[in-house]
């Protein structure tokens, strides 16, 4: 097990814990490196570990009985993977697929359960984060149904940029189409429109965000709503 800093500033969820709770929690974490394309969990699979991404991020994907797949949320340095454990369940409802390689903190599910039972502050924080995730899931359902592909793509690029901590992303049209649940031709047209407006540069799967401020304006309101909710409920600790 690698030694860890007492305050890993790159996982904002853990940063919100009181110092004593955070220090105790980190003594049972190990540093791991998440690999692009790695599957952390499958639907109905048993949760063996919880993960707190640092400079990595993971897509949570709903998969129907056929080949249809849709990303329903994304977890990076703002959150954690393994939330069913706080409800007393050890079964994953979604596929967790690493989309951004990099470091993360990991803890065995059994140790996590002990910390959860012993730390009221951890319980309170993760209940707030669960509320944020519930909001994101409902927002994605409405966004997918009502909002145009171009606005949804802009939102997804912003979410990815936030978690990748970089303006440079590697995302193919085929991958984006799967994540957004649309045809590849729709992604091509949306990406061309954003590029024509000078918001991004796209070439053979490499995307560079050129103008973040205008990309936020081009995105549907769901992105700003998600940011406001996280800030109010997690960072500021306001009432839900």
Brief descriptors of the model:
240 residues; 45% helix; 2 domains; Jelly Rolls; single chain; alpha+beta; globular; 3-stranded antiparallel sheet; Arc Repressor Mutant, subunit A; 9 helices; 4-stranded antiparallel sheet
Please tell me how large the radius of gyration is: 18 Å
Order of strands in the sheet with most strands:
2-6-4-5
**Roughly what fraction of the amino acids lie in strands?**
15-25%
CATH architecture of the largest domain: Sandwich
* Global shape: globular
Per DSSP, the total helix count is 9
Low-confidence stretches: 1-8
Fraction of residues in helix: 40-55%
Total DSSP E strands: 10
What is the makeup of the main sheet?
4 strands, antiparallel
* Overall domain count: 2
Q: Could you give the order of the helices and strands? A: HHEEEEEEEHHHEHHEEHH
- In whole angstroms, the N-to-C terminal distance is 37 Å
Mean pLDDT: 89
What is the CATH level 1 assignment of the largest domain? Mainly Beta
CATH superfamily caption of the largest domain: Jelly Rolls
- In CATH, the topology of the largest domain is named Jelly Rolls
Describe this entry's structure for a reader:
With 240 residues, this protein is α+β, with helices and mostly antiparallel strands. It has two domains: 12-123, Jelly Rolls (Sandwich), CATH 2.60.120; 148-219, Orthogonal Bundle (Arc Repressor Mutant, subunit A). Helix content is 45%, strand content 21%. It contains nine helices and ten strands. The protein has helices spanning 12-15, 19-26, 109-118, 120-146, 149-164, 173-180, 184-196, 212-218, 222-235, and strands spanning 30-34, 39-41, 49-53, 57-63, 69-75, 95-100, 102-108, 168-170, 200-203, 206-209. It has a four-stranded antiparallel beta sheet. Strand 9 (200-203) and strand 10 form a beta hairpin. Helix 4 runs antiparallel to helix 9 (222-235). The termini are far apart.
